[in-house]
Write a structure and sequence with these properties.
With about 35 residues, this protein is largely without helices or strands. It has no helices and no strands. The radius of gyration is 17 Å and the shape is flat. The two termini are about 25 Å apart. The model has no long low-confidence stretch (mean pLDDT about 80).
Length: about 35
């Protein structure tokens, strides 16, 4: 099986390349479910 990018070293994006954060936090209930 051939993987895309095989042999290419992964790098983290720089702060300039990264997506901006949210202006307001997401509200999450104290008890929640995670699928997967």
């Amino acid at each position: 099986m051939v993987l895309f990018g095989f042999g290419k070293k992964l790098t983290l994006p720089t702060p300039d390349e990264a997506l901006p954060g949210r202006a307001e936090p997401i509200s999450v209930p104290s008890q929640h479910y995670v699928n997967g």
